[in-house]
């Protein structure tokens, strides 16, 4: 049995493919004092029974970059370590049974063009030529992805581990981590090591890559746990006897309308999938120990929904035997994105877990990104979508997670509608106006747990690539705002109170704009990171000499708070007051008739902010929660929802964090340099002046019958030129409007006029007008 050191600079908990990838990449960055601890043997948790699919093309540019790197790493790793990974670049097929699926595949092909990956729509007969065992009579088409591959997960893990060992990392198996050691008060806690069944190990950094065991370790930290929202579900596949027409280089095939995937294995097929309603496993603190290279009981009844669809696609399976039934638990997050990064509750404690059945494909890139974060002290690329700081404590609740995992696993192969809302485990958080909004016919979505009205009047949120049934109601709301006045429930905003003698100096460093203004004034400002990109997009209102009110987006509360705590000086108090205030946004040309500038009649403690995201006039009333319902009744204005907010802000060219703004985008690229102070230094100032690589713009579609949803490819004279980031149907313009980026610099009105611009709408090029100025305003 290998000796356990008493100290290591970095301790990684978990010897699956992700933990070994983090160790490998840390040593590549020069960190050799790395200790990896595995409670069983390497790959013995979830990794060993994974299917091993590696599909680089993802829905986002950042996600695509992660998996593309994984594929490149797995293909080259054997040359470095001498251990094969089993990687084969066999290509992949995704078949379509329905028109809606075919549109999705066309959109995916356009994503490939945007991100530089080959993807081609082909006919059913062409698909059958590539994949002879399947029948195609019911198919409408397919997507061919030459970059897809497959890999042996256990072999990759061993190869990564050997590469880490060669550069100095220590890997010790059969050591169970029982808990984590920390020091400091709750607001200043730091990890100091791990407690194991073979003694304690001190560490400066601890990385939890323990898969489905991570949540229990996080919950058990003395003095208060960390937020690691995971719950396991049973995940099924079978390996068949030999099937005619298969061979080792047979492409991966996905029949998402039938919830199934297929890959060749020793002449037979792996047949697996993601059934519409998953089967949750035990609670995170009830996972048995030991659980090494183990499977759960077969459940043919639950698997039958997948097998029936597999038989439809591959008739030969009717007469083919089954070699092995695999039922292995995997952990899933509430939003189907994995968890990466340093936890806001405990400094020096990182997580890399919750990979939602894409851990093998993501592990190479995720391990690299996490290692770079550890070494540099901050993310070195846009990881907002997977950042562990996106979740709050209410999303860590086990009953919520158990209910949600049934839905999240089942959504893997659902059509990824751009406006799709989760249906399970709701509501979590509601504004004091919720009951009134229900009575007024609101249909709700959720953001960071908050129930938010999307539109009023329709009976359901139907999903469609074409004109949805709720659009007429949204158009009526837009016109009411533009011509009269409407009220919006914006309670979901994140709100922070920053106070103390050093509050001004601290915020002047964090904020790109100058916030040393008169009491009562509001400043629009970015928060930039050390790389010069956006960490947040906020307003700051000065309430007193050393008292400031910060408003940010609903989804970024914990990320924002962590940014403040990291960069504000000692003695500055930051309070999250998001639950303390309801927010009534009153917008439209008649705003001042309803809410005069003399706001003496408002409830005591109300903060009126004369700014608007959706029109050129308006006021946002931050009202003490208990007073909000009475004020809402007194205003007696027709309500409108977030679909209308989105359409109106896009017409005005107002950017949104997470769509137009993020860590890889500078204010120059976003066309927002006006929000930077020229007279002071601030975090990220020098890096923000780097040479831009993209340019923000607005667009209007020429055909009023065409819908855009965001994510569409922009084409210049038929060649990929950029991508739409946000889109809606704008009632003022009378057509679909959007925001986006061109992947070039500089962009001028002359260069725009020198090309024929189209947007790829489900595979069809549609004329579009691009402009550096918003179409409204």
Automatic annotation (TrEMBL):
Residues 377-431 form the FAD dependent oxidoreductase central domain. Gene3D superfamilies: D-Amino Acid Oxidase, subunit A, domain 2, FAD/NAD(P)-binding domain, Probable tRNA modification gtpase trme, domain 1. Pfam families: DAO, FAO_M, GCV_T, GCV_T_C. Residues 433-679 form the GCVT N-terminal domain. Residues 9-373 form the FAD dependent oxidoreductase domain. One of its GO terms (cellular component) is cytoplasm. Transmembrane segments: none annotated. Residues 694-772 form the Aminomethyltransferase C-terminal domain. Signal peptide: none annotated. InterPro entries: FAD-dep_OxRdtase, FAD/NAD-bd_sf, FAO_M, GcvT/YgfZ_C, GcvT_C, GCVT_N, TrmE/GcvT-like. PANTHER family: PYRUVATE DEHYDROGENASE PHOSPHATASE REGULATORY SUBUNIT, MITOCHONDRIAL, SARCOSINE DEHYDROGENASE-RELATED. Belongs to the GcvT family. This is 4-methylaminobutanoate oxidase (Formaldehyde-forming).
């Amino acid at each position: 049995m290998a000796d356990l050191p008493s100290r290591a600079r970095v301790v990684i908990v978990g010897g699956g493919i992700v933990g070994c990838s983090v160790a490998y990449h840390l040593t590549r960055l020069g960190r050799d004092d790395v200790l990896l601890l595995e409670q069983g043997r390497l790959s013995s948790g979830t990794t060993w029974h994974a299917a091993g699919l590696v599909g680089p093309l993802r829905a986002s540019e950042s996600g695509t970059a992660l998996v593309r790197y994984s594929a490149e790493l797995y293909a080259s790793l054997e040359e470095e370590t001498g251990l094969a990974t089993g990687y084969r670049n066999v290509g992949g097929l995704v078949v379509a049974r329905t028109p809606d699926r075919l549109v999705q595949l066309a959109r995916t092909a356009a994503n490939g063009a945007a991100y530089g990956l080959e993807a081609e729509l082909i006919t059913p007969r062409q698909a059958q030529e590539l994949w002879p065992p399947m029948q195609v009579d019911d198919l409408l088409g397919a997507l061919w992805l030459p970059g897809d591959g497959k890999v042996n997960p256990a072999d990759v893990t061993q190869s990564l581990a050997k590469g880490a060992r060669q550069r100095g990392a220590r890997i010790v198996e059969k050591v169970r981590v029982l808990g984590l050691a920390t020091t400091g008060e709750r607001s200043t806690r730091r990890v100091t090591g791990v407690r194991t069944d073979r003694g304690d190990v001190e560490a400066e950094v601890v990385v939890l890559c323990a898969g489905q065991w991570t949540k229990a370790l996080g919950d058990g930290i003395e003095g208060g746990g960390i937020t690691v929202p995971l719950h396991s579900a049973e995940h099924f596949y079978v390996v068949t006897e030999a099937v005619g027409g298969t061979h080792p280089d047979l492409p991966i095939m996905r029949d998402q309308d039938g919830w199934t995937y297929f890959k060749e294995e020793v002449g037979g097929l792996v047949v697996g999938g993601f059934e519409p309603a998953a089967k949750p496993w035990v609670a995170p603190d009830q996972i048995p120990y030991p659980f090494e290279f183990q499977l759960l009981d077969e459940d043919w009844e639950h698997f039958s929904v997948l097998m029936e669809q597999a038989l439809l696609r591959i008739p030969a399976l009717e007469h083919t035997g089954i070699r092995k039934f695999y039922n292995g638990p995997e952990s899933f997050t509430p939003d189907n994105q994995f968890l990466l990064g340093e936890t806001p509750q405990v400094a020096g404690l990182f997580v890399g877990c919750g990979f939602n059945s894409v851990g093998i494909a993501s592990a190479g890139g995720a391990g690299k990104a996490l290692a770079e974060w550890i070494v540099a002290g901050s993310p070195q690329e846009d990881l907002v979508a997977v950042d562990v700081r996106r979740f709050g404590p209410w999303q860590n609740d086990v009953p919520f997670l158990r209910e949600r995992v049934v839905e999240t696993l089942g959504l893997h192969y659902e059509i990824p509608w751009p406006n799709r809302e989760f249906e399970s485990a709701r509501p979590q958080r509601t504004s004091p106006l919720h009951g009134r909004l229900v009575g007024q016919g609101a249909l709700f979505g959720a953001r960071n747990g908050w129930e938010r009205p999307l539109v009023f009047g329709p009976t359901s949120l139907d999903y469609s690539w074409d004109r949805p049934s709720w659009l007429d109601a949204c158009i009526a709301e837009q016109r009411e705002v533009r011509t009269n006045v409407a009220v919006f429930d914006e309670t979901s905003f994140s709100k922070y109170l920053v106070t103390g003698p050093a509050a001004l100096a601290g915020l002047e460093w964090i904020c790109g704009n100058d916030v040393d203004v008169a009491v009562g004034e509001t400043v629009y400002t970015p928060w930039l990171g050390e790389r010069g990109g956006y960490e947040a997009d906020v307003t700051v209102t000065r309430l007193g000499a050393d008292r400031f009110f910060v408003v940010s987006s609903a989804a970024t509360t914990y990320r924002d708070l962590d940014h403040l705590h990291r960069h504000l000086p000692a003695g500055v108090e930051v309070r999250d007051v998001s639950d303390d205030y309801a927010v009534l946004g009153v917008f439209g040309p008649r705003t001042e008739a309803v809410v005069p500038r003399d706001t003496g009649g408002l409830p005591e403690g109300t903060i009126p902010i004369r700014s608007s995201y959706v029109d050129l006039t308006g006021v946002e009333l931050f009202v003490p929660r208990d007073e909000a319902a009475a004020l809402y009744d007194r205003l007696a204005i027709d309500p409108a929802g977030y679909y209308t907010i989105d359409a109106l802000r896009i017409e005005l060219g107002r950017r949104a964090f997470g769509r137009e703004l993020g860590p890889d985008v500078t204010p120059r690229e976003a066309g927002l340099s006006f929000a930077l102070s020229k007279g002071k230094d601030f975090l990220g100032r020098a890096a923000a002046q780097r040479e831009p690589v993209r340019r923000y713009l607005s667009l209007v579609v020429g055909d009023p019958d065409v819908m855009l949803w965001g994510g569409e490819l922009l084409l210049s004279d038929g060649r990929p030129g950029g991508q739409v980031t946000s889109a809606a149907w704008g009632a003022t313009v009378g057509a679909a409007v959007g925001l986006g980026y061109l992947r070039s610099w500089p962009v001028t009105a002359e260069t725009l006029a020198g090309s024929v611009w189209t947007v790829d709408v489900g595979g069809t090029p549609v004329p579009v007008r691009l402009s550096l100025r918003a179409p409204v305003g």
